[in-house]
Automatic annotation (TrEMBL):
<feature type="transmembrane region" description="Helical">
    <location>
        <begin position="6"/>
        <end position="25"/>
    </location>
</feature>
<protein>
    <recommendedName>
        <fullName>Cytochrome c oxidase assembly protein</fullName>
    </recommendedName>
</protein>
<comment type="similarity">
    <text>Belongs to the PET117 family.</text>
</comment>
<dbReference type="GO" id="GO:0033617">
    <property type="term" value="P:mitochondrial respiratory chain complex IV assembly"/>
</dbReference>
<dbReference type="GO" id="GO:0005739">
    <property type="term" value="C:mitochondrion"/>
</dbReference>
<feature type="compositionally biased region" description="Polar residues">
    <location>
        <begin position="71"/>
        <end position="86"/>
    </location>
</feature>
<keyword id="KW-0496">Mitochondrion</keyword>
<keyword id="KW-0809">Transit peptide</keyword>
<keyword id="KW-1133">Transmembrane helix</keyword>
<feature type="region of interest" description="Disordered">
    <location>
        <begin position="66"/>
        <end position="86"/>
    </location>
</feature>
<dbReference type="InterPro" id="IPR031568">
    <property type="entry name" value="Pet117"/>
</dbReference>
<dbReference type="Pfam" id="PF15786">
    <property type="entry name" value="PET117"/>
</dbReference>
<keyword id="KW-0472">Membrane</keyword>
<keyword id="KW-0812">Transmembrane</keyword>
Length: 86
């Protein structure tokens, strides 16, 4: 085997091994990035559920307060049955 063919074989093997290592490295990076997307999505869903629970609790409190207190809409005119306070 000649010196030139040995150098060509060594260069080709080195380049091939380097490319294989690079592809595996990039695949692992992409997999990690995709997993981070899943983690962020799960966090968004958790926050959304918490906000929905808070909203439901506020709605229940509002309904309870309206039952216990005499509340009227300030945008509607007062009915003719009740006189404005003097």
């Amino acid at each position: 085997m000649s010196q030139a063919s040995r150098v060509a074989l060594a260069t080709t093997c080195t380049f091939t091994c380097g490319m294989i290592a690079w592809v595996h490295f990039r695949q692992r990076q992409e997999k990690d990035v995709m997993h981070q997307g899943v983690v962020r999505d799960m966090e968004r869903q958790r926050i959304k559920r918490e906000r929905e629970l808070d909203f439901d609790m506020q709605r229940q409190l509002e309904a309870e307060y309206k039952r216990e207190q005499n509340v009227h809409n300030s945008l509607e005119p007062l009915s003719s049955n009740s006189a404005p306070p003097k």
